[in-house]
Write a structure and sequence with these properties.
heterodimer; A: about 270 residues; alpha/beta; 6-stranded mixed beta sheet; about 25% strand; B: about 85% helix
């Protein structure tokens, strides 16, 4: 049974979410809404908590306090059946693709169909090939994941995420580890999926070019707190020093090159004496 | 200083209780999923996986279990004979080997072999899947990892461990026969008649019951170690080692418990 969407309400509603590991606060009172049909990019540096927030939003972990509602259903209070239905409505493409290495690419895509539908094997194969066709991998179904390049693996992961025609698509660092051309292809794929299927898309990334290309709105995390939520223009025009530092790629601690030169000089002098 | 020692004891106790609790929850979930793994009745993909596991856990282990049992059969017969010969009671070597294997050595040797071969493989397989986010991926696809990964292994071990135990019993007893042939020139027919006389159905059944318990321990510990892997490839290696060490330790503990129960309830 499909989840009855609260048509007007947000798809994701994050309310005062706090997460800490070993006494260290990773997320500190996050509030965020993701509207139906929009592409929300979660931006932030390494260790900002953006991947943790994503794991909370897809129900892989539970917050210490606060609520996460998906289509109006509280993840923490949902029954096993409700959680299963919610998960079927969310397709996730993980950072390193997370394809099952013991299966072929086609079997990876077919897995969700085999688990959750009673379709005949021939129909499942046909549907898997169609999903692989959507991401341009129609001829690679019989390959094992190890035989594909990094970009192809990520596209295969997108095909697998699309298997059950989800209403929501989630990407964790889609461009990480890819060359600029392949990363741009993946951005185009995300935009294409949005146009074709009107999906709600959430993307975690720290790649600025990619973020500005695909986002409708952006949320910027810094040390576990949301410091900005707005459109691309809002972020670009922001005067917040942390946002400016991130967008202008300014390092935290500028290293004095003169000091390095002096160090080398001293080292060489010490070596020759 | 005193508080630190108490704290350490408390934290170690909590860790062990938490581990046993984790095992119990996983066992409960896995038992609930077994029905969907049964060949021809359950999920078609799940039971195919169970059959593959039966080949890996059971059939592929036959040579190793067989050789171990033959060696242990010879050892038991030789050690027994060296003492019994002095009393002119070589005949009792047959009882020693038959009872020793059906009650104890058959299931124990099989458990040690399966723990080393499959327990470590289970934890390495699941552990590497945890490292590469494949387990998370399963959960986001609304596929329960315990049912998908553990239940087929559990069913396979529950079926194959008693079979391997029977292979082990047979190989050990055959080795005893070979020893008797070499040392006393006893005819195989007479040896087998003596084996049948000293073999008690209760001993065979208790051995098989033990093997079911050992199968449960090996699968549950191996898989739990795998599911708990966090970090990188080194953590997978540590989990595989921990799976073998902990499951062997728990198998021995369970063996003591079972033997005590069978002893106290008579027959032994």
């Amino acid at each position: 049974m499909p989840i009855a969407p609260a048509d007007t309400g947000p798809v994701f509603s994050v309310r005062d979410v706090v997460v800490s590991y070993d006494g260290r606060r990773i997320l500190d009172g996050i509030n965020l809404d993701v509207a139906r049909g929009e592409t929300m990019v979660l931006l932030g540096g390494s260790g900002s908590g953006k991947s943790t927030l994503l794991r909370q939003m897809i129900g892989l972990e539970r917050p210490q306090s606060g609520q996460i509602l998906v289509n109006g259903v509280d993840l923490a209070k949902s029954s096993a059946g409700e959680l299963k239905r919610l998960r079927r409505s969310i397709g996730v493409a993980f950072q390193d693709a997370a394809l099952f290495n013991s299966m072929t690419v086609e079997d990876n895509v077919a897995l969700a169909l085999r688990e959750h539908t009673r379709l005949a094997e021939s129909t499942i194969r046909l549907m898997s090939r169609m999903k692989l066709g959507v991401v341009g991998l129609a001829d690679f179904g019989r390959f094992s994941p190890q035989e594909l390049s990094g970009g192809m693996r990520k596209r295969a992961a997108v095909a697998r995420a699309l298997a059950l025609d989800p209403e929501i698509l989630v990407f964790d660092e889609p461009s990480a580890g890819l060359d600029p051309i392949v990363a741009a292809e993946l951005d185009e794929l995300i935009l294409g999926l949005k146009r074709a299927f009107s999906m709600t898309i959430v993307v975690v990334t720290h790649e600025l070019a990619s973020a500005f290309k695909i986002a409708d709105r952006m949320a910027m995390l810094y040390k576990g707190s949301l410091i900005a939520v707005g459109t691309k223009e809002d972020l670009q025009n922001s005067t917040n020093p942390r946002i400016r530092q991130f967008l202008d790629r300014v390092p935290d601690n500028l290293v004095d090159t003169a000091t390095i030169d002096q160090y080398f000089e001293r080292y060489l002098e010490g070596g020759s004496s | 200083m005193k508080i630190t020692a108490v704290e350490r004891l408390g934290s170690a106790t909590l860790r062990h209780v938490e581990y046993v609790g984790g095992l119990a929850i996983q066992f409960w979930k896995a038992s609930g999923s077994l029905g969907r793994t049964v060949p021809l009745i359950g999920n078609r993909y799940r039971w195919r996986s169970a059959i593959q596991q039966m080949l890996a856990v059971g059939i592929d282990a036959v040579p190793m279990v067989g050789i171990m049992a033959v060696c242990a059969g010879f050892i038991l017969a030789m050690q027994g004979a060296s003492e019994l010969r002095r009393f002119g009671a070589m005949q009792y070597v047959i009882d020693l080997v038959t009872i020793g294997f059906t009650r104890e050595l058959g299931p124990l040797l099989t458990a040690i072999a399966v723990s080393g071969r499959s327990g470590s493989a289970f934890s390495a397989e699941i552990g590497s899947m945890a490292v590469t986010e494949e387990i998370d991926s399963l959960r986001t696809m609304a596929v329960e990892p315990v049912e998908f990964l553990l239940a087929p292994k559990f069913l396979a071990a529950l079926i194959m461990m008693p079979c391997l135990t029977i292979v082990s019993d047979a190989c050990g007893i055959l080795a005893g026969g070979a020893f008797m042939r070499i040392s006393t020139n006893m005819a195989p027919g007479i040896y087998l008649r003596n084996v049948v006389d000293s073999m008690v159905l209760r001993d065979v059944i208790t051995g098989l019951v033990k093997s079911l318990a050992f199968a449960t321990i090996i699968v549950q510990v191996g898989c739990l170690e795998g599911f708990r892997v966090r970090g990188g490839p080194d953590a997978v290696g540590r989990a595989a080692t921990a799976a073998v060490v902990k499951s062997t330790f728990l198998v021995i503990l369970a063996d003591v418990g079972f033997t005590a129960i069978f002893y106290l309830t008579g027959g032994h």
